[in-house]
Each structure stands twice: as C-alpha cells, then as structure tokens.
Amino acid sequence: MDTVETRELRYFVTVAEELHFGRAAERLGIAQPPLSRAIQQLERRVGVTLLDRNRRGVTLTGAGQVLLDEARAVLDGAAAAVRRTRRAASATNRLTLATKAGANHELLQKLLDAHAAEPDAAEIDVLLCGMGEQARMLRDGRADVALMQRPFDVLAGFDTEDLLTEQQIAIVPAGHPLATRTNLTMADISDLADLPVARWPGHDGTYEPGPGPEIHDLSQLAQLIALGHTVGVICASARSWLWSAHAAIPLTDSPHVTTVLAWPPHSRSLAVAGLVRTAAHIGVRQPFAASR
User: Fold this and answer.
1) Which residues make Cβ contacts (< 8 Å) with residue 45, sequence separation at least 6?
2) What percent of the chain has pLDDT above 70?
3) All domains of the chain in start order, with CATH
4) Strand, coil or helix: what is 261?
5) Which of 16, 50, 200, 211 has CA 20 to 30 A from 95's CA?
6) What is the pTM of this model?
C-alpha cells in the first residue's frame, strides 16, 4: 500500500463526521471536487471502499469505521507530537492538567497544594473541560495529565494512579418529598414520574434513551434540579457546588467511583513523574462515604 498522507486522513475524518461532502468541504475551506478526488485516491491507496454514496447520502462502510477510529488516533498523535515537542523546547517547567469543570474541587486543590510544596515542582495550568474530553486532550497533546473517573471515563491506553474512591449521591430539589430521606436507592429515583434522572453523555458522546434531560455540565444540572425538572446522580465530593435549592442524599447501592490521575504511558516528562509521585502520596483509596 502507498503511504497515506495526514492531509488525506484529515479530509476523510471530516467527511466521515459530516457524512456530507458539501458540508465537509465547507468545514475544510476547500472546494468539493478536490475533496471528492482526495477521498477516491485514499480508497485506491487502501484498496477498499470507505464510503457508500447514493441518492440518500453518504454512509460509512465497516472498513470506513475502522479507518475513522484509526485516523483519529493518528491525527491526535501527530498533533500531540508537535505540542509536546514545543513544550520540551520551552525553558519553563510547566504541566497542563485537564479536569471536568466543577468536579473534585477539594481533591484537585489538595493535589495542587501538595505538589507546589515539592522542591522544583512544575507549575500546573488547569484546563477545565466538558464531560469525557480529557482522554482526547491527553491523546492530542493539549494536556499532559488529567483527572478522570472510573468507570465513567475511558482509561484504556493510559497509565493511572488512584486518588479517591467514593460513593455517589442523589441531588433533588430541596422542596421534593425525597429531600427528607436519610438515604436512597437507585430504584427510588429511577421510578420517579415527576423527576426523571438526568442523562450524561456516554464514551462516544451520545445519550442513552430516557425521559430525563440531556446534561452537558454541572451548571446546567444544578439549575434544572433547582427548577424541579430532574434529579442528578453525582460523586459525593462534587456536593461542594450545591445550592440552597438542592438536597443531597446518599445512594446506598450505587457503584463506587474512583478518581484517578491519568497520563500517556510513553511520557518521559520529569514534571509528569513528579506530579505522579505527589498523587501516590496523597491518594485516598478507601471508599469515601457520602454524609448528609
């Protein structure tokens, strides 16, 4: 097989994401005919059909889905190589840590304070992101390390250090009858007709079907709970952002969640190694109870 160019992979990923040559061309800032020719050339190089084209539109073949996944990894790797090379050439001793906005504030502060007290500690820039974005940021080099959660985040391909294991809690409107309970089960909240459970995006960014609202971040969740439109399930440590219009009740049968520090396994950064050592010293591995 002839060598595939990163430009061709970028073109293919854009078409595969848009499933429309016109929109893909507009997004890439090129005309549609050269884009179509580039995809045809790519198919000739790999020797398989990547896209089915018909009057109803464009769809990925099975082989096309495989290439989409692999091409994203290749493009992320190329971007990461450039970013990390530039950081390596910099005279500054800095790290970028990605974390979900609003999550694990106390744990993050504890980690940052402990690391800052170490001799020759790297300066850490905190990059706040949305749900499930940390893995992509690690892979494409925008972040050196990240706070992630098992079992919610995809940790495959990363090295990790466990920091905190804890229960989950239900957040309900303060005026709701459930607000007086000392504890709840998952069945208690899943059966509520007047207060459907909020839905978070999965690993692929899509939502499971259900009556509850689709949630993108904790700020959105907080307001919808306060308005009496939903009930939220979150980690116990995230209750620091609760409003007076909220009530937090421990969930006795929800799976425990473990927050980890994650980093690329091929990292040779001394700064990353230093932060990992700090994480190993402060890690709280026993389950963290969700008190009311």
Assistant:
1) 1, 2, 4, 8
2) 93
3) 6-83 (1.10.10.10), 92-166+256-288 (3.40.190.10), 168-250 (3.40.190.10)
4) strand
5) 200
6) 0.73
